[in-house]
Amino acid sequence: MATTPSNKMLPKPHLPPNLPSLVATAFSRSVATKTVNFYPTSVTLLTINSIPFQLRYSPSLASKPKPPSVTTPKLFFNPFASPTQEMLITPFGTSPPSHNLVLNKFAVVPEHFILSTSAFKPQTHLLEADDLAAAYACIDAYARHNKELFVFFNSGDHSGASQPHRHLQLLPVENMKEGLEGGWDVLAKGLTDPNTRGKLPFEVFARDIKGLGGDGEELRRVYLELYNQACEAVLGVAEDIKHEGEAQISYNLAMTNNIMAVVPRLTEGGVVKDKDGQEVGNLALNGTVLAGTALVRSEMEWNALREDPDQVNQVLGRIGVPNRAKM
Ligand code: AMP
């Protein structure tokens, strides 16, 4: 029997209509009890190939514990396995709940939160339709309050990922703009424009998703198209790209209400040197690079990169596949 498109659509995950205030309340409560670590960061605007790029300095993140290894998941605490009441914002998805929204314990900006699967699923496996539908439902819930969310996902050794339990991260865009006097917006929003893509030192693949209505299967179709392009950029003409299970490359995904973007990753970052050529640290980038942001944890790196922003450009040139269309 032929299947009609409506039969194929997944039921839309239902979220509380007041999601932004739910997140804000949970965040303030947990910062007050010190369950969440958030200390104000310093931020500055750099111009990289005429793209406004924000550099953020968070000294408190220097004390964030690093998981011993992503490849030995059994040896360390999984924060997403059964989140405490203080960290949990809300479970949601079809019954039983497929996902949890939890606070990020090491918030980069206020109200930084996480969408994790309720049951353990590997971070390195390809995303499923219900993951993408759940992420888009959050974007939609914010849009209903005229607020924007930037969603990102890190997968694979070179992507900046640290936790093996599947999760996407969500950042309220107005909080990412705090401390900047304008002139910056989420990079991903402009990535369907070849002129903007052409200014980046790395290859990135992007599609407009505005007309898809947040349908999980449609979002997954776009995701797989972008993932295929990313695999081909890394592996060459790939005839054997699988669409289930373990991803064949490291990559970051970004999503806003109108754009989905995928960047294939080859390295996590690169060294930072001071003006005397001494190594002062390492700039590691995750999916927030697709928002046009980079985060540093030491004052020496912060000073070195502000003095010589071209180092950010050089690191951007190493993290992915060099952009053949670069202008
Ligand atoms: P990733 O590095 O992409 O794997 O993302 C993992 C995220 O989990 C990071 O942004 C961490 O700050 C966050 N995180 C680490 N430990 C915890 C925890 N105990 N509770 C909530 N979030 C955490």
UniProtKB/TrEMBL annotation:
Its EC number is 2.7.7.53. The keyword Acyltransferase does not apply. Residues 18-177 form the Ap4A phosphorylase 1/2 N-terminal domain. Keywords: Nucleotidyltransferase, Transferase. The keyword Transferase applies. SUPFAM superfamilies: HIT-like (SSF54197). Residues 199-322 form the ATP adenylyltransferase C-terminal domain. This is Bifunctional AP-4-A phosphorylase/ADP sulfurylase. The lineage of its organism: Eukaryota, Fungi, Dikarya, Ascomycota, Pezizomycotina.
